[in-house]
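Page 37, top half.
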Amino acid sequence: MSSALLAAGTGIGRWEAILIAAAVSACVALLGIWQGARTARQDRQRRLFGEALAAVMEYREYPYIVRRRASDKERSDISRALSGVQGSLNRYIAILTIESRPVGEAYALLVEQTRAVAGPRIAEGWDQRPRAEWADMRVNDVDLSELEPVTQAFIRAARQHLRLFRVRITQRHAVNTFRSLNSTGLGFE
């Protein structure tokens, strides 16, 4: 009876009211499905971006690991593990570029700069003698702080990608971002 009153009061028929209610219900259901799928995708991508950044941070530990080795016998184990990390970095560059071109490009730049800064520190570490004493384990000759701007640029790109409503990054904005990174002395041109 109430649907008849509703239909009579608005000038639409009973079947029209039922069809409108069904259409609204379908739209709400589709919106819920879309939101669930989007949330699952964001969670997967957030995890992927975090794992990729963790691989970079693991690579950054190798200048310290190489310097803290207790004997030259550890050299092959450290080299093998470092090779695995290098492979992970390359794999994440490919995966992130497929997921999102801006995030992939920011990650590739992060990896490039990390290798350019940490790689020579790793090589210098191999030239040092093994440290047999625990007192010798302190490493004071490695500073990777110059990598912070490019790390933050990757994090910003990942956050931008994961936003609900993304704003298109214009070419001008990208150029200004790279200019600001260049002013930090990281050598982007």
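Page 37, bottom half:
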Amino acid sequence: MDKTDEHIARIEEHIEALEARMDKTDEHIARIEEHIARIENHMDKTWEILKDLKRSDTQLRSIMGSFTNRSGKWIENTILGVYKTALKNHNITISKIRKAYITDTEGVILKGKRFEADMVEDNNFINLFEIKNFADEGAIEQLSIRKKILESKYRDGKKIRLFIVSNFITDKYLEVAKEEGITVISGNIVKEDYTEM
């Protein structure tokens, strides 16, 4: 065998080795394509499940929203009934407490925004209420916002009294409410174990 034949033999060996590697590469590519197809299938199923979950979430929110709207009024009436005598001590008859809307016409918070409020107005006072099962910072904030808007409307000096009527309030928010001039009528003061950060 001469050198040319040897080179040709070696080249043929290399070609066979490359063909074997290409076969293995083709097998790997085929497996990868199978995995990709499975992943795409799983993604399609996952997408369908997510769409179903979104539909279910929308339905649940709708159901819960209507339930909490109806039950919220019932709970408020129950809480007011429990603390009826304490409210009478402040010359407030619970049957006179009404839902009202206060519109921010002056832009105190956001011009044109309407805020729902529980209130009683008489010749001497405007009484604003936050009625909660568990009163927190939000109740204080809501009363403060409504008071600011009413003060911008009633510049004739009509006194605005603020009340939180709740089953529970933490000791921390009881103190904050007192500092803000809010009368708190609550059945339970919960000791809050907290640290400021």
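Margin note: Residues 8 and 72 are 91 Å apart (CA to CA).
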